[in-house]
């Protein structure tokens, strides 16, 4: 898809929100952060971990990955660190939007 369209990211979730808001004539704003590039591959251990439905399953997948490949800790830690950076950037954008409104103008506080 990236080669065909030149896309640097794929966002399928926001389209559903946009459609639901449009049907109800509700204004909305989508803000996303991108953790991984379109050509990045998640480590296999992280993919297995993401497929788990329960806390016990996630714990088992994480422990299994560490036992089978101790170096997978490095990959999981790097992903965690990138996630934290993205979360901080998203929080900064959201704080700015709350302070200035979606139109970029500072909001006046009611007296």
Secondary-structure map with pairings?
Layout: H1 2-5, H2 13-23, H3 44-51, H4 55-68, H5 72-100
Helix pairs in contact: 3-4
Strand content: under 5%
Distance between the termini: 52 Å
- Structure summary, number of beta strands: 0
Which class of secondary structure composition applies to the elements?
mainly alpha
Q: Could you name the ranges where pLDDT drops below 50 across 5 or more consecutive residues?
A: none
Topology pattern, helix = H, strand = E: HHHHH
Principal-axes shape call: elongated
Mean pLDDT: 82
The tally of helices reads 5
Biggest beta sheet summary:
none
Helix content: 55-70%
Oligomeric nature of the chains: single chain
User: Compute the gyration radius: what is it?
Assistant: 19 Å
Structure description:
This protein is mostly helical and 111 residues long. Helix content is 59%, strand content 0%. The chain has 5 helices and no strands. It has helices at 2-5, 13-23, 44-51, 55-68, 72-100.
């Amino acid at each position: 898809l990236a080669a065909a369209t030149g896309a640097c990211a794929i966002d399928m979730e926001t389209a559903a929100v946009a459609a639901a808001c449009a049907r109800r004539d509700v204004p909305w704003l989508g803000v996303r952060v991108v953790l991984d590039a379109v050509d990045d591959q998640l480590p296999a251990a992280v993919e297995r971990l993401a497929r788990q439905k329960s806390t016990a399953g996630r714990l088992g997948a994480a422990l299994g990955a560490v036992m089978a490949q101790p170096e997978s800790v490095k990959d999981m830690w790097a992903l965690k660190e990138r996630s934290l950076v993205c979360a901080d950037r998203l929080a900064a954008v959201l704080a700015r939007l709350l302070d200035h409104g979606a139109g970029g103008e500072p909001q006046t506080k009611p007296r």
